[in-house]
Amino acid sequence: MHGMMMNQPLSIMEILRYASGAHPGAGIVSVRTEGDIHRETYAEAYARGAQLAHGLDALGIGRGDRVATLAWNGYRHFEIYYGVSGMGAVCHTINPRLSAEQMLYIIGHAEDKVLCVDLTFVPLIEALSEHLPRNLKIVVLTDRAHMPDSRLDLLCYEEILAGKPDTYDWPHLDEQTAAALCYTSGTTGHPKGALYTHRSTVMHAMTVAITLNKSLKEGAKILPVVPLFHVNAWGLPYAAPLAGATLVMPGPKLDGASLYDLMEAEGVTSAWGVPTVWMGLRAEIEKRGRPPKGFEQVMVGGSAAPRSMIEGFEKDGIDVCHAWGMTEMSPVGTHGQLSEPMKALPWDEQMRLKSLQGRRLFGVEMKIVDEQGAPLPHDGTAMGELFVRGNTVVSGYFNNPEASDKALDSEGWFGTGDVATINDHGFLSIQDRSKDLIKSGGEWISSIDLENIVMACPKVASCAVIAVAHPKWDERPLLIVVPKGDEKPTLEELHELLLESVAKWQLPDALEFVQELPLTATGKVSKLTLRKQFEGYQLPDAD
Ligand code: AMP
């Protein structure tokens, strides 16, 4: 047929070009590793992105080459996102909390040509230098005055930009061009790369901006505590300029008091991050007796947000939106904004719904299946593995045919490894990672459910439930608690609390105390480490 619509490829750089003209008041506020606060508009970031692209041209970076980052949330990191993808290269964000071995594996697997590091990570790079590829160029994200003394041959970011033209002839890229790369560390084997395209990234930004519009609106000030090295900070560097919101980048200090002070000083309206971070902020809010001024919404995801935390924020008048997603999904899959009819429900019921993982975003399809792969009903009870499909979901893993072969089912759906129920309103409830579920006498026990309830006990700072082997029941739950104060809770009192919501046979058999829970590189409780730590644990009645 003739006379239809134009076909302009979706382009990441187009977001920043648009924001620099359409949202002149918005930009990026950054707490710098140098110690001060820096401000730039999106128009300035666009111009500096151009200077960076010229600089990378001069370093020999071409189409498809990987430019890696090892950096906190800040404006230079943001400029790299755009400059690198805009010139047709791939921005590869590395999680600095990974082990040295995993980091080296990733750098090698991605065949990174350039590595951009914050000042904080220079010692780490020096320690690893012998094992790094010889031709890897290291750029330090600072100016000449702050360049560290080092035996390594380090390039200075500001010098790379200095004197370069502030416009660039951005190439007209096919929208399926690779733009960004992020590795996800599974529980076994090497990390696997999710390779995002211009198309998937722009589509994700558009759907996130439309759906999470309470947070993403013109004039908003958004604090991404979620790192730019963890699934592109949930897409915020793309969705915020699109919506005309300013990003407030916290730099390296993420404790409750530092975040509170920054939020109050900058008038942050919405803050995004994992539950662990919000526990710190909640404690600070309780200490100071009120939330930071102007704080409207908290986005929480990455692991299950405990109901007690959600209620704490909501009682202070802060809307909590509980979201679920994963690296392979760009990452946002669902959001917990209540639908209109739900807003008329009693407060308690609203809080229960808010602690679920919420409804799907446009463009993300979900199904749950049984062990044979047959679809299960969305009735809030049937529990099965969650599969997803959509334009923002990976179709395989970067340069990894073996893992790619196993990623999709025969109908092209991606297996998330999460076990879930979906209710008749489309609300997802993640019960566990498939390998974290506890199977007792052939019946499943959800560790997330138990943890959520135990978190409501005022004597508990954090907790985790893991499966331990049992001769009769196969597996039974062990509860591991980090106590809040000196007075530790007893197993009996926690059983009493749990019995209000769960069946007797689901109660944890034993209670252990630890000083802190081991975390993974993305801030989730590492059940793998806990299971190793408590391997061979003797339950009281297991003889
Ligand atoms: P990542 O790829 O590191 O973002 O991890 C994705 C995994 O984190 C998911 O497959 C879930 O197991 C878990 N996850 C993310 N968000 C939530 C949530 N809101 N509640 C429970 N688990 C979550």
Automatic annotation (TrEMBL):
Pfam family for this entry, one: AMP-binding
**Keywords of this protein's UniProt record, alphabetized?**
Fatty acid metabolism, Ligase, Lipid metabolism
Which segments constitute the AMP-dependent synthetase/ligase domain?
35-398
What molecular functions are annotated in GO for this chain?
Answer: ligase activity
Per its record, the protein catalyses:
3-(methylsulfanyl)propanoate + ATP + CoA = 3-(methylsulfanyl)propanoyl-CoA + AMP + diphosphate
Biological process annotations from GO: fatty acid metabolic process
Superkingdom of the source species: Bacteria
PROSITE patterns to which the protein is assigned, alphabetical: AMP_BINDING
Instruction: Supply the EC number(s).
Output: 6.2.1.44
Q: What class of enzyme is it?
A: ligase
Domain AMP-binding enzyme C-terminal, which positions?
Answer: 450-524
Spell out the family assignment given in the record's similarity comment.
Belongs to the ATP-dependent AMP-binding enzyme family.
Q: What is the protein name stated in its UniProt record?
A: 3-methylmercaptopropionyl-CoA ligase
